[in-house]
Design brief:
This protein has one domain. 82% of the residues lie in helices and 0% in strands. The chain is built from five helices and no strands. α1 runs antiparallel to α3, α1 packs antiparallel against α5 and α4 packs antiparallel against α5. The longest helix has 36 residues. The radius of gyration is 17 Å and the shape is elongated.
């Protein structure tokens, strides 16, 4: 038995587990963030609010759900089920996460340590998805 046959599935399972955990947790936090934005539970200063599209946190909440929560949820579920498309979904979800952070910074013009953390998570999810695609 060759060593690569033993390590391949183990590495694949570990990569999948990380995607399930990171994407799943990010999806849950994105839903929470969207609820906070929609209900004004997340305070935002007036200048940042005026830079929001249509000056509405509700629009940002819907965008957060559609661009982060849904793709991360799909990636977590597909990875959990070992669906053949989970690698591609992780690449897309990670790229959308990084894009979300970049657009958020450009719009509100404020920096937060949370943005850095979620940008790194997006890059990691994207990278893990690429690893899966390379394994196939």
């Amino acid at each position: 038995m060759s060593n690569s046959k033993v390590s391949g599935p183990v590495v694949g399972r570990a990569v999948r587990t990380w995607v399930v955990m990171l994407a799943g947790c990010t999806a849950i936090l994105a839903v929470g963030g969207a609820i906070g934005l929609a209900t004004s539970g997340m305070p935002m200063d007036q200048p940042a609010m005026m830079r929001m599209p249509w000056h509405s946190t509700a629009v940002a909440a819907v965008a957060l759900l559609l661009l982060v929560a849904v793709p991360m949820t799909v990636s977590a579920v597909l990875a959990q089920r070992d669906h053949p498309m989970w690698g591609r979904s992780a690449v897309l979800a990670g790229a959308l996460m990084v894009g979300w952070i970049a657009v958020e910074i450009a719009i509100i013009r404020e920096l937060s340590w949370l943005q850095a953390i979620f940008a790194v998570i997006g890059v990691v999810v994207l990278w893990l998805g690429l690893r899966r695609i390379e394994q196939v």
